[in-house]
Amino acid sequence: MNILILGSGGREHALAWKIADSPLTERLYCAPGNAGIARQAECVPLDLTEHAAVAAFCRDRRIDLVVVGPEAPLCAGIVDDLESAGIKAFGPSRAAAQLEGSKGFTKDLCRANAIPTAAFARFKEAGAAKAYIRAHGAPIVVKADGLAAGKGVVVAQSEAEAEAAIEMMFGGGLGGAGGEVVIEEFLEGEEASFFALCDGETAIPMATAQDHKRAFDGDKGSNTGGMGAYSPAPNIDAAMSARIMNDIVAPTMRAMKAMGTAYKGVLYAGLMITDQGPKLIEYNARFGDPETQVLMPRLMSDLVPALLASRDGMLKSFDLRWHQTPALTVVMAAKGYPGHYARGTVIEGLDEAAAIEGVEIFHAGTKAEAGRILANGGRVLNISATGKTVRQAQELAYQAISRIRWPEGFYRRDIGWRAVERESRV
Ligand code: AMP
User: Fold this and answer.
1) Stated pTM of the model
2) Are the C-beta atoms of residues 9 and 333 closer than 8 Å to each other?
3) Of 13, 75, 321, 377, which has the most beta carbons under 10 Å away?
């Protein structure tokens, strides 16, 4: 098969690495890709907002399957446009991607189908939203309805902070994403990410992960796209997984089908495991980044037939096998991220780092120039490792990092601390 991956981050590199390994893959392309992906795929400079140009490329190169990485093209309907041009595409339609694209849509779906989630209300103007905040008190969570690149959620510790978030969102601080707002109850518990593969009718559980969103050690500093992750999530055992499938994922699949917007692709549930059981925080309509960089090294099965079965509605008798061993990834970012950072700094030592057994390096924001690897984004590299324990995976990842020479980069030194602590208790 000829396969085209859309995207340019660490997630897409991990997907390219796994897809390139499939005996079914003949030619692999990635648009636009990065310097690391270029090792597994031919990178092509397509503009992902130009769906017709992507379709034309697919016809020209006889692409058998398009794998969409990020949420923006999904929410813009790229799967619909490719499919109507006769090209198979993995991922949800535009209507189904609303599970990620509109927080209000998902909350209404939860309410209508008794799916456990935080109590909430939706608002289109500031006055009523502030009155709700005053009536409920803090802590309280304010969310922009639309896609806001990870900036749309404010977990407010005081009413004043919540009201400031309302002002910011309705004041246009997040552009169109903040035109409508969801306010919800603050949930207490431990978070986890749960990934299911869906074909419109059937959902099969994939794997679980936990990530670190804050920029600095001790989970301090600004929120980022994610500074590291590990899989599996230690707080999700087989019984909890079955409960999540039964109480959250399966009713979502049934509801989406009943509405005529059957969900295909990866359904990524962000969960809070509370005293009353798992509650949905949010859905994403795609693989996670950096979670994919720990899922792919743990996936024993061939990914390509799984993606095809999702697209073709054939997951019913499908089975995915996973290595029991954990994986961990540490993100290396450009100093200043998630704020202002420099591009174009030189990274050395990657081959020495990748030579360590059990280590895999996935590139995010990199480019190759004159035989050198340069930083070309905020999150730049993912150093992934598998080990017998999370602690061992963590040691390997940091050992690899010690071989990388990039003075303009930074990373957290405590990725996996919670899981390692748990391991040392048993
Ligand atoms: P999101 O962008 O929706 O993933 O939210 C970002 C983070 O905000 C989540 O990972 C949680 O840590 C936190 N969060 C979102 N909703 C809630 C909630 N209802 N209660 C507590 N924390 C929340």
Assistant:
1) 0.96
2) no
3) 13
